[in-house]
Amino acid sequence: MSEQAGFTPEQVRNRLAGLRKFCVWGTVVVMVFGMAVGGHALINAKKLLSDSTVIEAEIVDLEEGTRR
């Protein structure tokens, strides 16, 4: 079938090898980018959680009439 399209079997193998390399490198790039974005989001979430606990502690202190 590849002969009808004008490609030799060697050309088909080379094109598939190139496509395979492209897919592998694309997957690696997407995974690294995803880990970077996920790590950044995790750090921001930790910061938000720690800030909210401090705010809650200050609210409790104000309700009791004391301040830190």
Q: How would you explain this protein's 3D organization?
A:
The protein has one domain. The longest helix has 56 residues. 0% of the residues are buried. It has 68 residues and is an all-alpha fold.
Low-pLDDT ranges: none
- How many helices does DSSP assign? 2
Mean pLDDT over all positions: 81
Quantity of strands, as a count:
0
Q: Report the radius of gyration as a whole number of Å.
A: 28 Å
Strand content: under 5%
**Fraction of residues in helices?**
over 70%
- N-to-C terminal Cα separation, in Å? 80 Å
How does the major sheet shape up? Answer: none
- Helix and strand composition category: mainly alpha
Order of helices and strands: HH
Instruction: Provide the domain count.
Output: 1
Broad shape: rod-shaped
Chain-wise SSE layout:
Layout: H1 2-5, H2 9-64
Write a concise synopsis of the structure shown.
This protein has two helices and no strands.
List keywords for this structure.
single chain; 68 residues; mainly alpha
